[in-house]
Each structure stands twice: as C-alpha cells, then as structure tokens.
Amino acid sequence: MFNSLPNLQVSWEVISVSQRVSTTYGESPILAVVYALAAIVAIILFMSLTAMTLVYTERKVAAHFQCRLGPMRVGWHGILQSIADTLKLLLKEDIVPDQADKAMHLFAPVLCVLAALLALIAIPFSPYLAVSDMNIGVLFISAVSGLGVLGILLGGWSSNNKWSLLGAMRAGAQIISYELSATLSILVVVMFSGSMKFSEIVQSQDQGWWIWRAPVVGLVAFLIFLVASTAEINRTPFDLAEGESELTAGFHTEYSGMRFAFFFLAEYLNLFIVSSMGATLFLGGWMPLHIGNLTFFNQVMDLIPPGLWFALKVSGFIFLSMWFRWTFPRLRVDQLMKLEWKVLLPIGFINLLLAAILTLSGFYFFPGNS
Amino acid sequence: MNETLFYVLAGLSVFGALATVMTVHILRSAIYLMGVLCLSASFYVLLGAEFLAGIQILVYVGGIVVLLVFAVMLTRSDDLDEDRPTWPRKIVGAVGALSFFSVSAWLLSQSPFAEEKVLETSNVDIKSIGRALLDTGSNGYVLPFEVVSLLLLAVLIAGIVIARKEPQ
C-alpha cells in the first residue's frame, strides 16, 4: 500500500558526474581529478553564460512586449550586448560605503552566488548530466536557498542605508513566508513519487507528468508553486524588495561594479533554478512527452534527446515568468502577506491532505499501463 | 581520508564557535554561528545521515539564523556592539563557563564510547524515518512526535497572543 510506484520501469540509465568521477578514480586518479576540474570549469562557464543569456532574453522579451526592439547595436540584433555589459560591470569601480561594515558588505554577494551555485549541484539536466544525484535532492535545494536569504539580509544591513535595510527586510519577510507554500506544493510531488531523489522523481513520470497525472491536486500544487516561487525569487509582481519608486533599488542600492554583478548573477541563476525545479517536479524533467498508446507519436518524441527536453521545458517556464513581469502590477506589502497567509497556505495544506489520501488509495491517472 | 577530513572540520568548528562568542558585533556573531551550524551538518554527512544534514541546514541556517539576523536588523544599530564587561561580570562568567566545561569534560571521560563499532547508518531512507516517527509500536516515536507538535502549537499561539494588538 505504501509502495506508490508498482510499475516503475527503469528504462533510463541515470549516472551523475560525481558517480563517474568516483568510478574513474579506481582506474586512474589523475584522470578523475582532470575530469572533476573540467566539470567545475564547465559549471562556472554554464553559470555565467546562463545569466548573460537570461539578461539578454529578458531585455528582448520585455522590449517586444512593449512594441520596442530592445538592444540592437552590439552584434546581430544586439546579441553581444550582455558581454559588453558584463565587461563594463567588471571594469567599474567597486565602492564600499564609508560607514558600512566592510567585511560583511563584501561577503553578502558571495553568499548569494554560493547559494545558487550549491543548488545547481542537484539539478538534473539529463540522465547523464547532473553534478550529483543525491538521495535528498529536493530537500538540498530548499535548504541551500536559505543561504541566499541570508546574503540578501546581510547585504541590506551592512550597506548602512535606510533603503537597503528596508529592501532587505521586505525581501527576507517575503522569502521566508513564501517558502512555506513552495515547500508544501513540492511535498505533493515528493509524496506521489515516493522519493526526494531527482532521478527517481523524473523516472516516476514515465507514464505522465505529475501536473496532470495526479488528479487535480497536481495542477493546484503546480499553480501554488508558480506563484510562490515567483515570490521567492523577488520577481514582479512580487518585487517589493527593490521597488524602484519607493526604495531606489532595495537591498543592492549601495553595491557597484563586480559585487552588484554578483547579486545580478544570483538573481538570474535563481530564476533558472526555480524554473528547472518546476520543470523537473511537475513537467517530467528530461522525460520526453508521451501520450498513452500512440506508439508512433511516442517514438518521434523519443528522438528528441532528453537534455533538449529539459532545456525546452525550462525555457518555457522562464518565458512564463517574464510574461508575468509585464502582465501583473506590483502588490502592496499587506496584499502580499494576505495572499500568502490567508490564501495560498490554507489551499496548500488542504491540497497536501487530499494528495495524501489520493496517494494512499493509489488513485492517479495512467498507473503504469505498458 | 575521512579521519583527516573530520579533524579539519572539527578544528574549523571550534574556531567558529569561539569566534561566535568572542566577537563584539552581534551580526558577525550570527554569521559565525551560521558557519558552525553548517559544519555540524557536514559531520552528519560524514556519518552517512544525509537527511539529517539537510534538515539541519534547512531549520538552523534557513530558519534560526535568518530569524536572528532579522531580529538584529529590527533593533537600533548603535546598540549592536556589546559593552566592555566589568570585572565582576568577567569573574562570574569565567566561573560559570569553567564549571560547565569541567562537568561536561568529566561526563565525556566517563562515558564508554563504542570505538570499534562499524556504523550501519549509510542511506537511512526517508521512508523508514517517516514510518518510525508515526509508529505506535515499542520502537515508534509517535508519542514524542505528538508531544513536540503540541508544544510547538502552544508556542505559536503564545507568539500570536503577544504580538496581537489589544482590541480597542
């Protein structure tokens, strides 16, 4: 009765980079070290490239929503704009306010990037590409995101500026509150798939993605996750922490140059992480789209490599988030708190309870027909 | 390998704990505390209790330290640095700390540690933890679990009562 995955077919061989390094280590330690170094360099490259691509995409998407063209000058359709901006940020003077707590001021952005970097460890890009496939993958990501909150709080406090302090307080209160709803909605998927390991969660969606495979509760959990995660990464309509018209730029008002770039990097990485969490938990991760017994359709879908499926789903998620930005007006602080504590949280609890009943009774769609 | 790692982490932990109580800036003290808590999570990982390590970070770093920093931020910033302690305070503090240290050192030296026992803790899966928590049998933890949740509920209600504005 507790076994919620009676017909799990392991048709995908999952291997993570850390596993590969440890198997190579037995044969030749030097090769393993080279391999691990290459992986680290790849992650760092991936980090900066993702952030740059996302910044460019956001500017382009925003521009086209407003019937503008966006960056057009640097390179073809402004494609090199982000590189130029990055170079500019790196060359700018790094100013620390006179009365600020210097060590903390320097440490805060590093903490934010560190949190995002740690979370990237657990993201399953494809069956063959994840840095580490932990037993506690989901829990790990929720846990390390707490470091990011601390980074924001410290950045705001150590700047010794009222706007920064207010922005940081708002960000902190908002992230702590919405973390609850996000976790409750993630728990629904953990319960249905019976695991916190990302590879097992993805494989449990072999017959259908949890967003529709779990009757109704999956969709409700997905919607809660969408709202709560947008709030967790401080994006519009929940960007009170840096509401320009009230707080100049919120917690990073006093930051410049490289350290400002670090906050910026962390922000866009968090967007990527949240989107890949959503794609993995609710939309099947790297699993191709299969529809029932349409064998031909399923075979065509299998031709698309799993890494590309993951990229497509994450891109869809990210586009949705950018779409939100130009659709909804910003909430007031009291509306923000009311939404979380009086609307999302009760729905989340009831949804979790229903999901528990459904899991125990084994009632969900496509319970392994092939 | 594991032993060296343990000694390095333990050394860092002691350093962090000392820094936590010796700095005069409250906020820095909170950050050192965060370091110590992360390091204790790393000990759990060394012992093979990944889940416990995750919970440690989630609850203590993501919850407690964030709450601490939040509370510090709500207070006035010129009150944040500790005063230089007076001599009587120093003496009383030293006596208290020394007696606590000697009692715990004595207890630790008396306790028989099973040195040769090989731990079988690797990969305690979440399902067995969950079942043990809700088991009513002799090995189950359902009673402590319920008592703790009652305590937390009481604390929650008390917090709301204190924070609530008096009805006019």
Task: Characterise the protein shown here.
The complex is a heterodimer of chains A (370) and B (168). Chain A has 370 residues and is mostly helical. Chain A has one domain. In chain A, 67% of the residues lie in helices and 0% in strands. Chain A has helices spanning 17-27, 29-65, 81-91, 102-122, 137-158, 162-193, 198-203, 210-213, 217-232, 244-247, 257-282, 295-303, 306-325, 333-361. In chain A, helix 3 (81-91) packs across helix 11 (257-282) and helix 4 packs parallel to helix 11 (257-282). Chain B has two domains: 1-79, Up-down Bundle (Four Helix Bundle (Hemerythrin (Met), subunit A)); 125-168, no CATH class. Chain B starts with a helix and ends in a 5-residue tail after the last helix. Chain B has 168 residues and is mainly alpha-helical. In chain B, helix 1 packs antiparallel against helix 2 (26-46) and helix 2 (26-46) runs antiparallel to helix 3 (50-74). The relative contact order of chain B is 0.06. Chain B has helices spanning 2-22, 26-46, 50-74, 87-110, 126-133, 142-163. Helix content of chain B is 72%, strand content 0%.
Number of helices of chain B: 6
- What percentage of residues of chain A falls in helices of 4 or more residues? 55-70%
Output mean pLDDT of chain B: 83
Q: Give the SSE order of chain B as H and E letters.
A: HHHHHH
Short description:
The complex is a heterodimer of chains A (370) and B (168). With 370 residues, chain A is mostly helical.
What would the keywords be for this entry?
heterodimer, A: 370 residues, mainly alpha, disordered N terminus, B: 168 residues, Four Helix Bundle (Hemerythrin (Met), subunit A), 2 domains, 6 helices
